[in-house]
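Because discrete structure vocabularies remain unfamiliar, we first show an illustrative case, written as a sequence plus integers encoding its fold.
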Amino acid sequence: MAKYDVTGMSCAACQAHVEKAVNSVPGVDSCTVSLLTNSMTVEGTASHEDIISAVENAGYGARLSTGKEDSKSLENKEKPVLIKRLIASVILLIILMIAGMDRPIIQMVLALAILIINNKFFISGFKSAIHRAPNMDTLVAMGSAVSFLYGYYDSAAMIVTLITVGKLLESISKGRTTNALKSLMDLAPKTAVVIKDGQETTVGIEDVKVNDIFVVRPGESIPVDGIIEEGTSTVNESALTGESIPVDKFTGDKVSAATINQTGFIKCRATRVGEDTTISQIIKMVSDSASSKAPIARIADKISGIFVPAVLGVALLVTIIWLIIGESFSTALTHGIAVLVVSCPCALGLATPVAIMAGNGVGAKNSILFKTATALEQTEKIQIVALDKTGTITCGEPSVTDIVPASGLEKSELLKLAASLESKSEHPLAKAVVAYSEDTYECKDFTAVPGKGLTGTVNGKKTFGGNKDYIISVIKVPDEAILESVNISNEGKTPLFFAQEDRFLGIIAVADTIKEESQEAIRQIHNMGITTVMLTGDNERTANAIAKKAGVDRVVAGVLPEGKNRVINELKNYGKVAMVGDGINDAPALTSADIGIAIGAGTDVAIDAADIVLVRSILTDVPAAIRLSHKTVKNIHENLFWAFIYNILLIPIAAGALSGFGINMSPVLGAAAMSISSFTVCMNALRINLFEPGKDKYDRRNAQAELPQEITGGTTMATKTISIEGMMCKHCEKAVRNALMDIPGVVTAKASHEAGTATVELDGDVTDEMLTKTITDLDYTVTGIN
């Protein structure tokens, strides 16, 4: 894909002609031209020379974009030129109206001067006509030229002056729609202080390389993405996340370009530089999305392509009709010129891109990034939101949820003893217990019992920790503790049992807990009439417990990446589907969904596969994205309505359709109306900047999706259930599941340590011996296969 800067375009007709010219070049697969950003994106194998030549042959200019965009590249270069032209035109027009009364020679000279000042209309208009691609400038040039040639000097001068007023207003309002993108570009630092040969040296940001060591003092912007090698600080990340509360940073933590170091001196190692930094990727997403074209724009594009030739024909026909019915040549010509100057293809061409740009800007301010205009348009149609559980609904890391000490033992003491034993283990559940405890004893003679638990000496006493079966084999566990562990398991948590010598100490429950905002996010999604489905590789009991707490409508448990993909394809039979995920295993489902939404803290693979990226990793941004999409599409509809209704109403009036009622439109009034039309569309789009996507008071309910009782993903393969002894936690389940998935012919595999089983779906010849060997190699015991 290549991006080009295009010059010479003035209206939607120009945009349509450039697209048509480039699409006709052999080797071009697709071409998208943006009138708003004066850019063009081309996909295919055609050479740059052939593409540029096609644009030039169509009467416009083009050059390959450097790709190094900054806020200066988006500055409104047209505005100062238009201001100078307008000032000069207005001064001469005032002189013409006052001093030129009853002095035709003076009127002619002053009018000619005004036309020369505004010669761009004539150069662009007639050049386009020569290339058989007439545009808006052609209409203005012909209208004012004919007026001048037939002695309507004041009309000729006022037409180009009023159109210049409209162009200036349009330029100002268009410029404001890119303010959000310019603000993002201004955030990117321009220099960095790197350490070279032991000395601090200030270099341009483009000279920083991966693994360079750079330093950041309090109050300075972090220049590139990196990892803190030395020092601690608090960093304001509001530029990326929108969160105003600074984040504490320590050695080993990641930092991002364009965030502000607030309190400490830090020394960092660069990990991402140039276009690979987070802020650069955000800028690229917003810029690419603004340059892309929404499907809704196709209708306006088709009309714009034939609009100007049609208006020229209508103007000629109107003039002839007035002459045929016996009116004077002056009257006929006045109506013909009025038709030329009142017609406005610009409003049609700007209706969609200015709204898309404004919507993308609001999204970027709220850390919601739409990769394409299509994603921004289609998100509002979502009827089903499928949510990955781990890392999306839940935090993605285990943490302590319950501490149930045996009779006579304090919670704090149970936690301290358990953490002391677990401190020697690398198991994620052990780390959760240790992280929750503020203090530990010394642990000696530590031993891990594979698939069962741990032993060690704490305070001179033999201490045990592990699953229920392991602790029962060591000591007598009270019945009430067994019952409590069942309740804990039913809530989707993992109970860890602890004992010391011949004494039962108690139970500590560990689970991947629900994020604070998950319940609120799902409530807001429900308020829009959207059905929620949770996808997870966990067993049904754990999945149902999480789903009930989060408020999810439907659950598909025990599903692996391939299964998620099949479930998404099945859900698409019942409505428009959005998939929300954060991991590598979510990428196929994100790609298959109508709209893929990636949590910003997720993997690069998930982010690359998605259509929308939620930078803050907050689930409430999902309904916010849907609201913003709805607001933007509504604004586009308003713009298109105005653009169509303007031309539908005013062209007949300019043609004299209401002359019988004494209502006529002069060319001057037509020019005034034309100058206002595009400005109105741009100003309407700017109203999106006032929209707050986080507020749900204006939510619209989408059409409810009717899902079947059971969602299976359409699988019809052979299934085998393996009975296994020795699994004690979700990580054991993961080890079994991954090992089984490595067997050729196994399509899906799911394991449950509570049930003591693993279930596989097969599409090949997989023997029981192969399954047994795979499990026993992990030090678990297979007791049967059905």
Q: What stands out?
A: The CA atoms of residues 368 and 567 lie 26 Å apart. The chain has a mean pLDDT of 86. The chain is about 45% helix and 20% strand.
